[in-house]
Every structure is written in C-alpha cells, then in structure tokens.
Amino acid sequence: MKTRTAPLFRLLRRRRGRTGAFVLLLTVASVLAWPRPTSEQVPLGEQQTVETAQPRLCVHTLLENEVEEAKIKRSLQLTRELGASTIVQFFPWAYAEPQPGAYSWFHADRIIRHARRQGIGVIARLGLVPEWARANSSGAPTTLNHLPEASFDAFARYAGAFADRYRDAIEAVIIWNEPNLSFEWGYRPVDPAAYTRLLRASYRSIKAANPDMLVLAGALAPTLEPAGSAAGLNEIDYLSAMYQAGASGYFDGLAITATAFASRRPPSQRQGA
Questions:
Q1: Which class does domain 58-261 fall in?
Q2: Is the pTM of the predicted complex or chain greater than 0.70?
Q3: Helix (H) or strand (E) holding 153
C-alpha cells in the first residue's frame, strides 16, 4: 500500500541539498510573522489609588523576570489591595543595555506603567552587569554581579539614563544591593572604597539627569563577618569605611535590609509598644 507524501516533504526529498536553506527561510519567515509585543496587549484599566492605614508599608516585588504582562498587572493590583503604597523593584542593567549604548526599556516600561495606574510609587534598585561590561584582562569567568572598576562609568551612564527616562515615575534609585557580601560584589573581596567610587559616579550621573531624584546607597546585609573574611564584612564596619572614603556627599539616604530584624511577637508584646 502506497502512502501519499505531502508536497512539502516530497520537495524536501527531491532537493536534499537545499533542505538546510529552505528550513532556515521557513524559520525566519515564522519569526517575522510572530506577533510583536506591544504596549497595548493588556489594558491598563482605570486609574487607581491606594487606600491604606499604613502609608509607610512597602513591598519588594520580583517582576523583572515575569514575561506575562497580565501577571505583572495582577501582582500590582494585589499589592494595592494589600495597602502598600510603594514597591521596591529590581531593574537589571543587563536587561536594559545588552549592548553598549543600545537601551531596551520595554520590560521596565511595562512595570512602571502598571504601577502608576495602580497608584503605587516605585523605588528602583539597579544592578546586574551585562556581559560586555564584565570583561576582565585575565579572561576568568565572572558572575552577573561582577563589575570591574573600568565599567563604573558605564553603569553610571545607565543610572543617569534610567533617572532621565523615569523622572516622573520613580521616587528613588538604589545603587546596588548588599555590596558588603562577596557574592553580591562578584565573588571578590568586598571593597567599601571601590563601592563609594561607584556610588559617587552614579550619584553625579543621576543628579545631572534629574536633580530631584533621590539616590539611596545599597542596603547592607546584616552580618557578623569580621575584616578579612572571604564572605564579606559586617555592615557597621563597612558603612564606617564608606564614610572614611568620602561617601557622605553622594547619597541622599541608605536603603535598609530589615529581614533579619523581624519579630514574631505581635506589636502589643514588643518593647515600647
């Protein structure tokens, strides 16, 4: 019994030498025909306001890797319903500038747009280094937190571009996260003086783009690590070293990691309540 072969497969059998090129053209055509993301895929809905008895309540959202816009919108709706008037959201440099000087704001725009529609203020944390900015002379592998000093100015330019683009949408910018931990400093010995130089470059770039933008020094991890530890340095000594390096003139406030200080007791049983 003969089996009929579809015309496309008969064509591929007769022209084996051209199969690779044909498949490549078919793939390219499919990609070009794929629906492009647009800002109108998920309706923003009506303008909302946050009703809360705790106006200082802030939620750290994790929307940077969410690909479905509907879930971004729903997450921010739930944040508003919770009564949080502000979020802290990470905006990775590696996502926004995959090539030097070539910015892509699509994903950040979606988050900001939906946060504003929900009436939620945004504090932006910046970090995560693109591959082109992590290069080092040794050629050794690097982590996404590895920022050579030669790339400090490139990071500062990104911070300035971010502050300029979102001048009416962002309340403050946090420069890096927990730089007193070796992991967050690219698996290198922590360096308060180097971080201060990064902070200074970023502060100047942000203020040049948007003088009203608040610049927050990166939150320091609560830790007991002593000087010389391979894991990091305790936050008190690290902050003291930042001041000694001249950091005081280059940040408007200090972000705080408060998770280690959470209490399981109800407020009525806490000291001073």
A1: alpha beta
A2: yes
A3: helix 152-165
